[in-house]
Each structure stands twice: as C-alpha cells, then as structure tokens.
Write a structure and sequence with these properties.
Radius of gyration: 27 Å
Order of helices and strands: HHHHHEEEHHEEEHH
Helix content: 40-55%
Strand content: 5-15%
Distance between the termini: 106 Å
Largest sheet: 4 strands, antiparallel
Number of helices: 9
Strand order of the largest sheet: 1-6-5-4
Number of domains: 2
Structural class: alpha+beta
Shape: elongated
C-alpha cells in the first residue's frame, strides 16, 4: 500500500515536470529556429552561408553549447562579411591564403561589431601598397616557372608570352573552361599588378577580368585589356601580354639582372 501511494503521489509531479520541460524545450527550439531563419534571411545573397544553430557536440548543453554555436556562427558571419567587403581582390596571394586559413579555422576572429568591421576594412585598405609590392614578386615568380623546359617561358624576365601549367580545367559546358580554384588568387593578383603598373589602381571586379574572361568564354579563347588567352585541354593556359611597356616595368621591378646575379 505504501508503495502504491508513493507512486500515485509521485506520478503527477513527474508528469508536470515533463510537461513543463517539454514546453520550455519547444520554446527554446522555436527561438533557435527563428534566430537561424533571421541569419539566413539577412545573409541570403551570399551562397557561402550555412548558419546552423545546433551544436556539433550534442553532449554540450547550456552556455557551453551556446558558446560552441556562436563561435561557428561568428566564423560564418565573418566569411560573408569578407565577401561583402571584397577584401580578397586587394590582397596578395600570401595574405589571401592567411585570411582564408583564419576563416577556415575560426581562430582569433574579433566580435561582430561595426567598429571591428570598419577597422578590418580600413587596416587592409591602408596596406594596399604593401600588398601590391608583395603581389609583384608573387606574380613574377608565378609567370616564370623555374626550370621550365618550354622556350616560351623565361626564368629571369618575362617575354611576350607565357604558358602556365594546370591552371585551367574543362567547364561544365562543352568547349568552356574554368580557372582551377587554387590558381584563382594568382590570376587575380596578375590583373591587380598590371592594373597598378598602368596607374589605374587595383582591379574593380572581385575575381578580375582575366578569371572572368576565361569563365565567360565559350571556347576558351579571349582577351582582356592586358592579356590574350587560350585554354588547353591539358590544363595549360597560354597568355600573351598586350602591353609591352607594362611587361618591361614588371621586369624592371621584379626581374632582370638581379635574378641573373649580374
């Protein structure tokens, strides 16, 4: 009798506890769903966002889970903000890789505030001259592959043409080509360097006219203000420089006798 009485008295309390917990959990998930939709709607113009309010480690609850989720959301938000500010188009290849690594790992990212966003933009804009100087050396090395057996390429200075290996691959539509993702920063930097050498400042498009021209060409052949290009099925990209004066300026800045040891 005492056991039955205890059960009868305990059951209502347990049911009430369960019902209250269920209501709170459902309210919490409703709020999480609302927050997730808010983020996805606010950042919807960017394909890279995938905000997820569920913790990856389901063993974590409370503030631990919230910290984990917010760290992931902050990283994703910074990725979108970097895209919106188009920072990559002004960075050297080295700086771009450093930024991408930081965004990939989510390390040492500041809080999302207007002050921090403006500060990041201003810091990078103030360093454009340094980035361009770095990019000049990077581009020169990219265009003159050391030890190349191709007569078109020169180890010490640029000529009228270069052939770049494994830079492009066939596109999804027959006859078209696309730039290999890992080489996109170098082609963007190439556009930047020629634009700066021409006195026009950094490029105005995100990927640069050369990357855009390759992607938009229906047969892998085309030209921009500074280059004529031809894509090959073996992945090679043939580039002809249209401005010999800019090539000479690049050679004088980054190549020539200093590389020959004269």
């Amino acid at each position: 009798m005492s056991t039955d009485l205890a059960i009868r008295e305990t059951l209502p309390a347990l049911v009430a506890c369960y019902r209250q917990a269920e209501e709170e959990i459902r309210q919490a998930y409703d709020l999480l769903e609302s927050a997730e939709k808010r983020l996805q709607t606010g950042f919807q113009e960017f394909e890279c966002n995938c905000f997820n309010v569920n913790p990856r480690d389901y063993c974590k609850v409370g503030s631990q889970a919230a910290d984990m989720v917010m760290e992931s959301i902050k990283t994703e938000a910074w990725r979108v903000l970097v895209e919106r500010m188009e920072l990559r188009r002004v960075l050297s290849v080295k700086r771009r890789k450093e930024l991408d690594d930081q965004l990939m790992k989510g390390d040492k990212l500041p809080d999302i505030t207007e002050e921090n966003i403006v500060a990041m933009l201003q810091d990078n804009l103030a360093s454009i001259d340094l980035y361009v100087k770095e990019a000049i050396g990077e581009v020169f090395d990219f265009l003159r592959p050391v030890g190349s057996v191709l007569k078109t390429n020169s180890e010490f200075e640029l000529g009228k043409r270069v052939i770049l290996h494994h830079v492009v691959s066939p596109g999804y539509i027959k006859g078209t080509f696309r730039v290999a993702y890992r080489h996109e920063p170098e082609l963007t930097a190439l556009d930047n360097v020629f634009s700066v050498c021409d006195g026009k400042g950094t490029i105005k498009t995100y990927r640069g006219p050369l990357c855009d021209g390759i992607s938009e060409s229906k047969d892998g052949v085309g030209e921009t203000d500074y280059f004529r290009f031809r894509c090959c099925l073996n992945g090679n990209l043939h580039i002809e420089f249209k401005r010999s004066d800019l090539v000479a300026r690049l050679n004088a800045t980054a190549g020539g006798s200093r590389l020959k040891g004269l």
